[in-house]
Structure formats: structure tokens, C-alpha cells
Amino acid sequence: MYSTFETEITIRPDDIDLNNHVHNTKYLDYVQAARYEQMIKEYKMSMEDFHSLGYNWVASTAHIEFKRALTLGDKIVVKTQLKSYSGAQVVVDFWIVKTDSQKVAAEGYLVYTMISLSSGKPVRLPEEIIKKYTV
Amino acid sequence: MYSTFETEITIRPDDIDLNNHVHNTKYLDYVQAARYEQMIKEYKMSMEDFHSLGYNWVASTAHIEFKRALTLGDKIVVKTQLKSYSGAQVVVDFWIVKTDSQKVAAEGYLVYTMISLSSGKPVRLPEEIIKKYTV
Amino acid sequence: MYSTFETEITIRPDDIDLNNHVHNTKYLDYVQAARYEQMIKEYKMSMEDFHSLGYNWVASTAHIEFKRALTLGDKIVVKTQLKSYSGAQVVVDFWIVKTDSQKVAAEGYLVYTMISLSSGKPVRLPEEIIKKYTV
Amino acid sequence: MYSTFETEITIRPDDIDLNNHVHNTKYLDYVQAARYEQMIKEYKMSMEDFHSLGYNWVASTAHIEFKRALTLGDKIVVKTQLKSYSGAQVVVDFWIVKTDSQKVAAEGYLVYTMISLSSGKPVRLPEEIIKKYTV
Asked: Are C58 and C113 in contact (CB under 8 A)?
């Protein structure tokens, strides 16, 4: 089991939709924003660092189950955890949790593929990166 | 097997992200925009019609597999097909297809739950709605 | 001269556009997010409080001058200041400032109109609200 | 007086905000989407064509007056008209018009600056481009 990382996200008015709740696709944007920050703070290897090495991360699969609506006043935290890695891919589980009630608003997973910036093709994860990620 | 419906979507500049491609969560917005239009044109029962009956549809699960990047100039069509229904839910399969090459840019499914506008609770699909949807 | 309020905004990956900068319309979303928070923290009268009184605020005019591009790593603060009020409207000046360099990334103003939630028509600002806002 | 160009825009569910109307900053995205299409269809010089020449267009000022709310079912057309040009800049007036009533939902202008892709600095508009734009 790998570490679980947490990132607070501030819900913005422009995230709210016609049902007066956070728009459903924004949940995935929150997770990706959290992940972006965790690359810097937790893995000490930012997206820009990957770019400098000629790599990029792209989402290959997104799966999300919506459990509870989020509203503009809600405080939330995004938790993520590396589940597994293989070839050019990592599977990252996530949970969006309401801070006050500790109830899960949504959960799911993202499969990210590391690609070469120049060719756009998947690149097998180097040992060095696996080491950094499997903490 | 139920009918497959098709809706053309116009990619907008504000859909493009830092990788110069359509942002990954926008794919799901395209599917939902297509579905919204198909409710009117294909099922002859718009979201507003559901609201008038005291119902609303919310996404319970979204699953998407990204196959090909989309760029600003791409012409795309969203295809959807009811896969199954049960209780208060429908499962809708979708494909985002590049018009020129007929290649699939993404595919997946959405589980939608019909809820009561007043209580927010799931409502078992009435026969009348099942009949309209199972075409 | 009325008080200047400051709110930190976190730039998210989904705010970045095809030029690899914060998308230009997101600047206005940042200002409105800041303003929303300032209603709670500074005026002690949240948007929800206005709603309870049967009022709503809508933007009537937005004017923004873009001075510097913002990128994903930038730290920013939104400063706003009530400039004037009249009838049903307030004019709010704003500046988006890069925290590190203290350089202005954008500046402009928003004209907000207070409307009745039921009729949608403008409502002359009551003395009580003017008093709260002219601090 | 230069030509007025028209582009139909389809309002998407993800454009709708907490007031059940098109979110105010989306209006500017519609104008920019229209302008992007008009570059191809009307000026026969797409954004990509500008990029190939080493140029890019960025918004320097946006001014918009909101006249009427737009809802999900509304049909709209964006009209734009070059107002003037000078140095590296063009001023483009715009109107968002509801197709059914022909009423203006919003109007304003955008100042666009042509910059060098490599230096990021403004580039005086070449005669050739002025000629294409002043139709």
C-alpha cells in the first residue's frame, strides 16, 4: 500500500452548474489539480520536471462514482493513492471528501500514461520514476 | 439493442488545454451536451419536460477511456446508446468519433439516476419513461 | 475611498488554455470567486444572505485589461475595491497581482446590479446594504 | 465601416451556472469561438496560419455589457465587426443576439494584439494582414 496524499481544493463559483451543485466534470478537474500539486509537494517531481526530461502524463481512463452533491460553501479535500503501476501506466485511486462531515462526495480512479513529448508514444516508466512514486 | 443517436459537437477554443488538446473533462461535457440534445430530438422529452414532472437526471457514474487526442480543428460526433435500465437508473454507452477518420477518440458509459426534484431521492423509472427510452 | 480587499486564488490546471497560459475569461472568474469570498469575510453578508432577503447580484458590465500572462505555477492575489454605488448598482475595481513580483497581471472593473430574485428586476440598494458595503 | 460577420453558437449544459443562465464569462468565450471560426471562413486566414507565420493573437482588453440572460434552450448568433486597427492591435465590436427575438443579449468589444510567437512582443500589423482584415 502506497501513501495517501491530501490536497485542499477551493470550490469556485464558476464550478457550479445548472443544478446549483459543483458540475460533475469539475470533480475530475479537482482530482487532477490535486494530483498536479502532489507531484510538486509529495513526489518532488513536478509536471515541468517531467517535461524537462521529455515526458508528459496524459489521462487514459477516468472512472468516477458520484456519491454526494457538492455546493459552493463546501470545504473539500482530495485524497489520492497510487494503486499500481505497469509498463507506461499508473493507476491512481481518489476520493473527494467533505471536510466537515468526512463523507465521501465522489470516488474513483484515473489511469495515467507517461508519453514521450516528442513522439506522443507511451514510455515504459524508468526505475527512477517508479522509485519516486512508490512511496 | 436500442437505437444509437448521433450529435455533432463543435469544439470551442475554450475547450483546449495546456497540452493543446481538448481538455479531458470536456469530453464528458460533450457527451452530456449530446445527450441533452438527444432528449429533445430523439426521445421527445427534454430535461425541462422531466423538471415539469418533478424529476431530474443526475450522473451517478462516469467512465471514459481516452483513445485519441482531439484538437481545435477536429470535427466530431457523439454517439450514444442506451445499454440497460434498472430501478431509477439508465446506463448509456457513448463514443466520441472523429468525423473525418471515423476513429474513436474516446468511449465509455454514464450511469444516470432519475431523482425527485423535491426530495433529491432516486425515483423508480415509470413505465411511460422506460417506453420512451427503450427505442 | 473604500477598503481594498485581497483574496488568494489557486490557479488550476483546467484554467490553462491553448497558449499555455491562464485562459483570458478565467481572469474574470478569479475576480468573481474573490468577490464571492469577500462578501462572506469582509462584508459579513454572503451571497446566500442576499438570496434569503430575496436579492441576487448579477454582473452588468465587465471590463478587463490584460497586462501579463499567468502560468500554472504563478501565485496570485485578487484585490478589489468598491469604487462607487448608485441606484441598484455598484462599481468594483479589481487588480490581479502576481504575488512574487507584485506586478499587475490584469486590472479592470465590474458593474454589479442587485436584482429581485422573484421579478429579476433591479432593486435600489437599501441603506443597510450601502452601509455594509461602504467600508 | 467593415463587414459584419455572423456565427451561430450552440449553448452547452456545461456553460450554465448557479443562476441557471449562461455563465457570464462564457459570453466572452462564445465571442472568441465565433472569431476563431470567422478567421477561417471570412478572412481565410486561420489562427494556425498566423502561427505558421510566427504570429499569435492575444486579447489585450475585453469589455462586455450584459443585457439579457441566456438560457440553455436559447439559439444565439455572435456578430462581430472590425472597428479599427492601429500598430499591433485591432478593435473588434461584438453583439450576441438571440435568434428568435433578435434582441441583443450582450455587446462589447475586444482589443486583440498580434504578438511574435518567439518573443511574445507586439508586432506591427503587416500591410498584407491589414488588407485581409479590412473587408
From this structure: yes
| pLDDT (tens digit per residue) in C73-90 | 999 999 999 999 999 999
Residues of A with CB under 8 A from a CB of B: 19, 24-26, 28-29, 32, 56, 58-66, 69, 120
The residue among C27, C84, C113 whose CA lies nearest residue D61 is C27
**CA B7 – CA B76 distance, rounded (Å):** 9
What residue has cell string 462589447?
A: D108
In angstroms, the CA B1 to CA B22 distance is 31
DSSP B111: E
Q: Which three cell numbers stand for residue C64?
A: 478587463
Kindly report, residue by residue over C23-70, the tens digit of the pLDDT. Answer: 999 999 999 999 999 999 999 999 999 999 999 999 999 999 999 999
Beta strands, E only, D67-124: 76-86, 89-98, 104-116
| Segments forming the whole domain that contains residue C73 | 4-133
Which portions of chain D are predicted below pLDDT 70?
none
| CA-wise closest residue to A78 among C10, D13, C25 | C10
CA distance linking residue D65 with residue D62, whole number of Å: 10
Q: How many domains does chain C have?
A: 1
- Average pLDDT of every residue of chain C: 97
Q: Do C20 and B16 touch (CB under 8 A)?
A: no
CB contacts, 8 Å: C69 with chain D: 58, 120
Q: Which residues contact C86 (CB under 8 A, 6 or more apart)?
A: none
Q: CATH number of the domain that D16 lies in? A: 3.10.129.10
Helix (H) or strand (E) holding D33: helix D24-41
ipTM of the complex: 0.96
Any bridge partners for residue A77, and if so which? A8, A97
